[in-house]
Every structure is written in structure tokens, then in C-alpha cells.
């Protein structure tokens, strides 16, 4: 599953601009997703350090590239182990890497990363339980309350419904929940993400179930509801789906908040809503590569990202939410965040929302088979 690169406005300063010419292994070497950390936050972090270490923040275009980096380091290390001591070369492995929560299970199973030391993280307890649970896994990558801490979440978002204000004004109503997608007025007027977990998941939510349902065959009316939804949708796409919304070719699009929020901020004709029955959540995480060089700056950087004031600034600049934010007393938050229900969803909606946890192979097979049946049940739509 891929999420698109962040579409951040002119207020975000890319690290590539900030750190141009900064190469080599620094005292803190981080490979991160482009545009997810504002450069001014890196400057502030450096000013707070008593020493003057080298900081190398190297942005990558997408999460797939970052996961591939972890795999390439592992392959190189295996090759190095086969060489004699005189032939071995130094491999520059980052201290931290951005990873999407979707990739976490595979990174653990493939032994690409190592657990974090929570005792060295002063702000770990500020992290709400929902995010602590997300990164506690067993050695197979499955959620485990007694598992080790394999990652540090630093931002998160949602799956949203974006819609054209002008088009819905003529209809006389506004979308509020997933069940609106089944209304006859929207037939062939919206797009869905080309992702089985997302589409089957929102249908499960409509039926009062979790995105992580383990036995689809026991969910009454699931297949019939999916058939109806498939007949409603104009097309499936996980990339460039907002262009049709901008031009008015579609009236509504289901998509990811990191794509949608910057658009809502700049265009008055497009609005968005988090479905009231709950939605899918995603999170970007810091992970520690398996064979990285240890440095105390690793934990210092993670703690810095979890400082309330820093978390607020990063949330506003990147239009993604720090996991620390839901745990802060609303009276202590700026109005730009506490009054923005898209950045900080109401507590009851957040409680009903789900991260997409890894599923057993047998369950994955159920999702895959159902998805193929639904997509082939009527004429194939372009994706």
C-alpha cells in the first residue's frame, strides 16, 4: 500500500534546501520522508544541543524508497560478512529512518530494524495509548501489548471524504459519514482509493465493524454492500485522484489527509470531513536500523519531536498531526489546532477509528478474494 508524497504549501521549507551539500556520516544521520520535518525544527534542535554535532537529514521521495534502503543495508552487511577483515568496507547506515506503519510488520519480520529503548525516551509516556499500542509488536510483527517497542510515531493522519462545496450546495446536503457514498445522487460522481483494506474497511465501518475484522465471512451483508458501492463509484485511484475533484469531474473523493488538507487550505470550493462512524488512521514512524551505530542523539531527536510546543509547530506546518497532540489538554493547545477538527478529530470519532494492523495470512486471503470478486462483479473500472 502506498501513500502519496505530502503536498505541502509554500510555508514548508524542505530539508533538501536547508541541508544542501551536507553529506557523509554525521553524528546524527536520519533518512526521512521528504517534507515531513520542517527545516526550522532541525535548526531549533541543533541550537538546543550543548555540543555541535553534525546533523545529516536526508529526505527521500517516498516510503517505498525508505523501506528499500533498510533492505539494501541488510544485503550489504551480509555481503560484508562473507569478506575477509582486510576487504571489508564501511557502510553508512542511518541512525533513524522514516517508515510508514504499514511497513512495520515486514521490517520486523525481515529483521531490518531493532527495538527502541523506551527507558531512554523521556517523553514516551506522553504518547497516548493508541499510538503506544501501534508500535508494540512481537517478533513476527503482530500487535502485542507485551511486545517490544519497535518504532516511535511522529505524525499521523486519516482517510477523509473530500467534496465539492458548490456541487453539494445544489444537492442540499453535505457528506458526513460513509453511508452517504451509497446515496443515489452520488452514483458515478466519486472516486475511491484503489486499496482493498481501505474500501472493504470503510464498508465494514458502515456496518458497525472494525477495519481489522478477522473473519469477513461472518460479517452480514458485507458482500452485497460492496457490490452496491462498486456500482456507485466512478473510478478507483490512489494517485492523482484530487485532480478530478478540482476540475469538477467528480464531486467527492475518498483520500488521505496528507493529500487533502493542503488542498482544503488553499481552495474554498473544496471541503473535507472525517466520517462520524470512524475512519482509517496512518502514522509515520521513526525506526532504528538493525546494525546502526549507537548514539544518544537518536533518543534526543525522538524526544524533541514529542515536545508539545514542537509537536504543535510541526503539525501546523506540515498539516499532519503529532501523536502527542491528542494527549494534550485542549486548553493548552493553540486555536489553530484545537478548532481544526481535521487536524484533531473529536475524541469520540478518534476512538472509533482504526490503524490498519497486519492480518493473518488466512485473513489476507479473504480480503484479496473478496476484493477480486467485487471488482470483477461488474465491468472493470479504471484505476
TrEMBL record:
Q: Where are the transmembrane segments?
A: none
What biological-process GO terms show up in the record? polyamine transport
The record's GO molecular-function terms, alphabetically, read:
polyamine binding
Coiled-coil regions in this chain? Answer: 212-239
Q: Name one GO cellular component term.
A: periplasmic space
> Key word Signal present in the record?
yes
* Domain of life according to the entry: Bacteria
Q: Where is the signal peptide?
A: none
Q: Where in the cell is it found?
A: Periplasm
Q: Name one Pfam family in it.
A: SBP_bac_6
Keyword Lipid biosynthesis part of the UniProt annotation? no
InterPro entries per record: Sperm_putr-bd
Q: Which UniProt keywords apply?
A: Coiled coil, Periplasm, Signal, Transport
Q: What is this protein called?
A: Extracellular solute-binding protein
Organism name: Okeania hirsuta
Amino acid at each position: 500500500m502506498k501513500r502519496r508524497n505530502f503536498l505541502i504549501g509554500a510555508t514548508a521549507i524542505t530539508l533538501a534546501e536547508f541541508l544542501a551539500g551536507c553529506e557523509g556520516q554525521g553524528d546524527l544521520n536520519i533518512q526521512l520522508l521528504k517534507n515531513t520535518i520542517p527545516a526550522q525544527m532541525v535548526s531549533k534542535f541543533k541550537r538546543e544541543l550543548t555540543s555541535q554535532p553534525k546533523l545529516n537529514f536526508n529526505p527521500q521521495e517516498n516510503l517505498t524508497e525508505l523501506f528499500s534502503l533498510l533492505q539494501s543495508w541488510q544485503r550489504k552487511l551480509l555481503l560484508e560478512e562473507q569478506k575477509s577483515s582486510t576487504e571489508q568496507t564501511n557502510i553508512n547506515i542511518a541512525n533513524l529512518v522514516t517508515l510508514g506503519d504499514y511497513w512495520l510488520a515486514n521490517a520486523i519480520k525481515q529483521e531490518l530494524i531493532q527495538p527502541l529503548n523506551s527507558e531512554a525516551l523521556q517523553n514516551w509516556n506522553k504518547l497516548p495509548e493508541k499510538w503506544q499500542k501501534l508500535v508494540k509488536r512481537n517478533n513476527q510483527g503482530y500487535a502485542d501489548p507485551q511486545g517490544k517497542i519497535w518504532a516511535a510515531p511522529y505524525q499521523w493522519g486519516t482517510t477523509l471524504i473530500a467534496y465539492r462545496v458548490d456541487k453539494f450546495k445544489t444537492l442540499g446536503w453535505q457528506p458526513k459519514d460513509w453511508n452517504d457514498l451509497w446515496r443515489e445522487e452520488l452514483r458515478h460522481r466519486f472516486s475511491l482509493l484503489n486499496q482493498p483494506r481501505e474500501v472493504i474497511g470503510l464498508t465494514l465501518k458502515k456496518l458497525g465493524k472494525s477495519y481489522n475484522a478477522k473473519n469477513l465471512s461472518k460479517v452480514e451483508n458485507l458482500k452485497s454492500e460492496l457490490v452496491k458501492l462498486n456500482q456507485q463509484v466512478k473510478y478507483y485511484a490512489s494517485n492523482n485522484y484530487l485532480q478530478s475533484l478540482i476540475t469538477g469531474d467528480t464531486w467527492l473523493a475518498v483520500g488521505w489527509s496528507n493529500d487533502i488538507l493542503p488542498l482544503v487550505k488553499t481552495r474554498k470550493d473544496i471541503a473535507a470531513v472525517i466520517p462520524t462512524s470512524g475512519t482509517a488512521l496512518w502514522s509515520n514512524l521513526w525506526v532504528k536500523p538493525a546494525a546502526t551505530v549507537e548514539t544518544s542523539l537518536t533518543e534526543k531527536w525522538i524526544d524533541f519531536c514529542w515536545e508539545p510546543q514542537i509537536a504543535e509547530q510541526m503539525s501546523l506546518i506540515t498539516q499532519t498531526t503529532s501523536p502527542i497532540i491528542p494527549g494534550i489538554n485542549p486548553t493548552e493547545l493553540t486555536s489553530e489546532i484545537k478548532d481544526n477538527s481535521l487536524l484533531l478529530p473529536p475524541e469520540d470519532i478518534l476512538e472509533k477509528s482504526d490503524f490498519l494492523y497486519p492480518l493473518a495470512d488466512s485473513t489476507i486471503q479473504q480480503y484479496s478474494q473478496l476484493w477480486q470478486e467485487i471488482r470483477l462483479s461488474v465491468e472493470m473500472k479504471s484505476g
